Amino acid sequence: MENALTITIWVVLVIHLLMALAAVWKVLRGENPAARLAGLDLFSTLTIAILIIIAIVSDSSLHIDLAIAAAALGYLTTIVLAKYISDQKVF
Amino acid sequence: MEMVLQISAFVFVVFGTFMSIIGVIGFIRMPDVYTRLHATGKVSAFGLVFLLMAAAILIPLNIWKTLLLIFFVLMASPSVAHTIASAAYRSKTPIVGKRDDLAARLGAQKIHSSEKPVSVDD
C-alpha cells in the first residue's frame, strides 16, 4: 500500500508537470492578452499543486511554506495584470 | 485507522488529478476566454483542494498550514476568475456565442456581432 501510494504520487507529479507545460504553451501562443492571462493563472495554480506534491514526496514543511508564498504572489500578479489589461494602466 | 487514512489520501490524490486533467483539457479545447475560465476554475477548486486534503492527511505535522492554504485558495480562485473575465470584457475580447447580457445592462455595443443587444430587463 505504501509503495502503491509512492508510485501514484510520482506519476501525479509527472502529469502535473506536463499540464504546466501545456499552460506555458497557451501563454506563449495565446490569441489575445486575456487568454494569455488565463493561462498564467492556470500556471500559477499548477505551480502550487506541484509544490504540494513535492512536499508530499519529500515529507517536508518547507515546500508548503513555498506553496503559501506562491499562492499569494500568483493572486496579486493576476489581479494587477487584469487591471492593466482592462484599463491600460495599473494605478 | 492508519490504513483508512492512507486509502482516503490515495483516493483524494487520484480524484484531484482527474479533475485537474479535465480542467486542463477544457482549457486547451474551449474556443473562448470566458469558457476557458470556466474550465480553469475546476483546476483550483477541485484539483488543488483535493490535493491539499491529501497533503493534510499525509503530512499531519503541517495540517494548519494546509488548511489555511485550502481556505486561501477557495477565497482567491473565484475572485481571480471574475477579475479576468471582467478585464477580458472591458478590453473587448470577442465572444463566441450569441448572448451578451452585460451589453444590454451597460447600454454598450455588443462586441462580437452586429445584432441588437438582447433585453434582459423584463
Task: Pick out its properties.
heterodimer, A: 91 residues, mainly alpha, B: 122 residues, 4 helices
Description of the molecule:
The complex is a heterodimer of chains A (91) and B (122). With 91 residues, chain A is mainly α. Chain A has one domain (2-87). Chain A has helices at residues 2-28, 33-58, 62-87. In chain A, helix 1 (2-28) runs antiparallel to helix 2 and helix 2 (33-58) packs antiparallel against helix 3. Chain A is elongated, with a radius of gyration of 16 Å. The longest helix of chain B has 28 residues, at 2-29. In chain B, helix 1 (2-29) packs antiparallel against helix 2 (33-58). Chain B has 122 residues and is mostly helical. Chain B is 72% helix and 0% strand. Chain B starts with a helix and ends in a 16-residue tail after the last helix. Chain B has one domain. Chain B is elongated and about 60 Å long. Chain B is built from four helices and no strands. At the A-B interface, helix 1, helix 2 and helix 3 of A face helix 1, helix 2 and helix 3 of B.
Write the layout of secondary structure elements.
The complex is a heterodimer of chains A (91) and B (122).
Chain A: H1 2-28, H2 33-58, H3 62-87
Helix pairs in contact in A: 1-2, 2-3
Chain B: H1 2-29, H2 33-58, H3 63-90, H4 101-106
> Low-confidence runs of chain B (pLDDT<50, min 5 residues)?
none
Oligomer: heterodimer
Proportion of β residues of chain B? Answer: under 5%
Structural domains of chain A: how many: 1
Radius of gyration of chain B: 20 Å
User: What's the total count of β strands of chain A?
Assistant: 0
Uncertain segments of chain A: none
On the 0 to 100 scale, the average pLDDT of chain A is 91
| Cα shape of chain A | elongated
- Count of separate DSSP helical elements of chain A: 3
Strand content of chain A: under 5%
